[in-house]
Amino acid sequence: MKLFYLPIVFLFCLLGHIGIVSAQNRSITGVISDAETAKPLGGATVQIKGTILGTVTDGSGNFKLSVPPTASRTLLISMIGYGRQEITITNDQPLTIALRPSSELLDQVVVAASRVEESLLRSPVSIEKLDANAIRQSPSANYFEALNNVKGVDMVTSGLTYRQINTRGFNSTGNSRFLQLVDGMDNQSPGLGFAVGNLFGVSDIDVESAELIPGSASALYGPVAFNGLLYTRTKSPFDYQGLSIQQKTGINHVGDPTGDGIKPFTETSIRYAKAFGNRFAFKLNASYLKGRDWYASDNTDIDPNTAPEKRGSTNPGRDILNIYGDEVAQTLPGIGRVSRTGYAERDLTNYDVYSLKLNGAVHYRITKNIEAIYALNFSQGTANYTGSSRFMLNDFQLTQNRLELKGSNFFIRGYSTAENSNHSYNTRSLGQLINRTWVRDLSGNVVSPDQADATWFTRYGAAYNGTINGVSGGSDVTARAFADQGRYLPGSADFNQQKDRYIGIAGLQGAGVLSQSKLYHLEGLYDFAPHIQVISLQVGGNLRHYAMETNGTLFEDKVNKVRVNEFGAFIQASKTLLGDRLKLTVSGRYDKNQNFTGNFTPRASAVFSPNESHNFRASYQTGFRNPTVPDQFIKLNVGPIIILGGAPSNSAGLNAYENSFTAASVGAFGAAFGQAVAAGTPFPQAVAANKDKLVKSNVAYIRPEQSQSFEVGYKGLLGNRVLIDVSYYHGQYRNFLINQVVIRPNSPVLLADGTINPAAASDVLTATNRQAFQLYTNAADRVSTDGASAGLTTFLNRGYRLNANLTWAQFNILDANPNNIPAFNTPRFKTNAVLSNDKLTDRLGFSLAWHWQEAFDWYGTFTQNLPGRIPAYSLLDAQVNYRLPALKTTVKLGASNLTNNYVVQAYGSPAVGGLYYLTLTFDQLMR
């Protein structure tokens, strides 16, 4: 409760101070226009030089700025696509300022690449940026989807509310190797260990910019930024004031062959911001999206124990990709492999999804160079995603609090993230559990769930063998119908009752997923540039604390709470030489997790700029990734096997890492022993003769993954109308996190002389004297990747603009065991092209975006790492917009996937079709 009241007290203190400071300031007003057309420029930035004070012009080009008496008398005027100006204030008369068009590409500034402002052209590493204007003009349905047109980006769409982003390979639907920051806050779910795409975060109308770094950013941002970084910044209430309302209305499921007709889609976003002089400002945001998600309904038989040519609807042992419960299978004597009858995903999950995002912030400028911020973000939504199973994030909540103090050359930021999984559940487990509630024995009595599977197969075998009166033998159809007698049909009252019951039970006895875990983070940065003239120097660091709460369902945390601490610190120095033509930068970061030895990740780069238009860069980068908290501490007994995280303390007393055999050697020993006994060899002699086939496991506790890469590139302007950006990289990876199955006997594995203990060999033959474990560890194998990208941005005549890029990625497995390496899951080639014109007429604009990527095989734990083909596909997005300046309104008609090409982007996920929408945006009303 103290934390709840603190922001309120803070707010009232600030409000009491506003009246005092406002009287001391003076107001500067003016209008900014285009020097060539004399038309007003909305969105131009006006800043007091040497301070953090500033504002943005409204749609009519007007601005009003409250200036403290001690502040500089110089204004900095800037806008993308126009040359910057410095204006000296000589009196209090309104200003009339005309900006001349210049190369937008020359003036772009980024922050994420070096954590300080620098020219986009002189960034030491590859970086891409979408500003508010680019987001507004994008033909994609939202800013997150628009990132798919950025070169080097791989995006997996699992549904309306969940898209996952990745760069440079090793892609997945739950990406824990890519860092997503929103205003500096990690957007990950502490329990899941990754950011849930666009389900949580910020609405389009509050996004100021998004910067993306493909490739490791660990040297500056720590372990999560192993494969890349997305940094999203929201709009300051000082700069962007007034009321903005955006209403999207649309449809999807057009021509969906697996659906039941066209479905509506809506998204409503509201933003209000107000500043009181240059001291205090606040903003409030609300966004609500709802619609019918796409259906995962692939009927491909993926049973790994059936020959490919015999798979299909007539296969008695079929395992249909998006049907759950049929994974339970058994080989029946004289019959063959038979699987249970499953339930379709659409009968088990909820496709009516939504996303609610609420956030607010108060900003107070203590001085002209220091600003305090408190922000509260609350998100709740539903989404279906594909992991080791298909999961339904149902009413999943994420709450974040942020308190920040920042100046022109420093910041201190603290935030917390709390999740509540609410009614989330495992869809595949749900199907299996419902299947165990209605099975009858041969006398017609319903058996207990623990006997249901065995009883069902007994019924099937009896019917197939012709021992049931009135049932013809030798037929899968009739045997299955007999075994399925009493089966709960989807939609029936009994089915719905069991579905709700098992969703409400978390852990192995149910399908529910329980997590109320939290993350706490404190970090700071100081830039010594104002104090040191010889070099540019920045230092920073962070502390992080995970507090996991699953009530014993995932971790052994009912009594012994799972808590993890880590910290990191970095230093970066840069120096310009040769008359500012050469910029050298070196940085190094040290990170320490309480469960691992520390990691040092250096980065070095050089940028040579013979002039401001041509820039050559080279860099050496390193990265690392700590195993997630579940990787370290999961302790889940699933019956025949215990899934055990790899932190040493997690396995204390279990003797699994220290005293176990490899699963493969146990299989070889068991087969040889069985043959010997069948040939008449007595038990002890059979054990002694074959025990040396057993191999003691050598499984290490987990440690961080590591990478290093080399990159060269060129970014340059040709005649201020064409930007060329090309790059090549080579990366090497080691210590990838894997799982390894071992068998632990009750007796010591080895005798004193190092030979296999016969007692241990006897133990593995008896179920009560052995235990199987799935251990988290690292592979010693090394692999490498190579990649290149080329991008072209050109301004054509009459306002037309063309962006085109091509990306190539190559995975080199070298001598590695494929079972020890995460799936690359990345097409070799992909390309994007965007043609746009924001000024087709005074009021009319349009954009057209085309994306294509090559076919590739997708490997995932959902299909036991068996490959599923992702065919080559292309997507076409389009939008046309019309502005009504007098009403401060823009009308936008658009389509994501205009041609309605249903495509699957991750094997086991739904086929995604077109989304057609109409957007009305009312901007900066009541300013």
UniProtKB/TrEMBL annotation:
Keywords: Cell outer membrane, Membrane, Receptor, Signal, TonB box, Transmembrane, Transmembrane beta strand, Transport. It is found in: Cell outer membrane. Residues 121-228 form the TonB-dependent receptor plug domain. Residues 381-898 form the TonB-dependent receptor-like beta-barrel domain. InterPro entries: Beta-barrel_TonB (IPR000531), Beta-barrel_TonB_sf (IPR036942), CarboxyPept-like_regulatory (IPR008969), Plug_dom (IPR012910), Plug_dom_sf (IPR037066), TonB-dep_rcpt-like (IPR039426). PROSITE patterns: TONB_DEPENDENT_REC_3. GO terms for cellular component: cell outer membrane. One of its GO terms (molecular function) is siderophore uptake transmembrane transporter activity. One of its GO terms (biological process) is siderophore transmembrane transport. It is a multi-pass membrane protein. Belongs to the TonB-dependent receptor family. This is TonB-dependent receptor plug domain-containing protein. It comes from Spirosoma arboris. The lineage of its organism: Bacteria, Pseudomonadati, Bacteroidota, Cytophagia, Cytophagales.
